[in-house]
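As a warm-up, study this chain.
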Amino acid sequence: MTETRPFLRGVAEGLPFILIMVPFGLLFGVLASEAGLPVTQVIAFSVIVIAGAAQFTAVQLMVDQVPAIIVVLSALAVNLRMVMYSASIVPHLGAAPMWQRGLIAYLLVDQTYALAAAAYERERTWSVADRVRYFAGTAAPVFPAWVGGTWAGAALGARVPASWPLDFALPLCFLALVGPLLKSRAHVAAAFVSVVMVLALWWVPWGLGLIFAALAAMAVGAEVERRT
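Now compare it with the structure written out below.
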């Protein structure tokens, strides 16, 4: 029982995200279907990329017939946070076997990272194996909920009533994740700059304002961290 406890705890703490991930996936599936992607491609998109924000960005730009290079660069820019996530958890999981680190990298998303980072700070006595088990537990409900929601949205397509407020899932998901992580001046400064810059650069075409805002937020956060 001792060996499975971190895994079961991860599952228990990941389960509430189903309430967000399913409508999140439904919304993406519907939008991708309306953009002309067949169900198989929509599912492959979610299984391979596993990055909702980047996927929404890419699909919207594709609908707007933006050049492919801009679509790719915008999606990569949105996912730059994964680099920071990876660097953050290396001290906790860096000693795990290569194949486990590969799976962790594949399943590293906002939800699994937020849960794991918080748990690793609290449970200082956990072994590397315990940390891996916990991470696997958090991914157990999150990944199927995302892929399943995507499949349902793509299969239903335009048959999903417009009155269903599925778009609430995207901002709610990130508010739930970001709020508890704003623990330092650097975090708050980066979040504030990102919001201000996104609003100020709404007019920049092709969604490039999001890239500029992300770069500015990271620079400000890093500078505040250096000074404090």
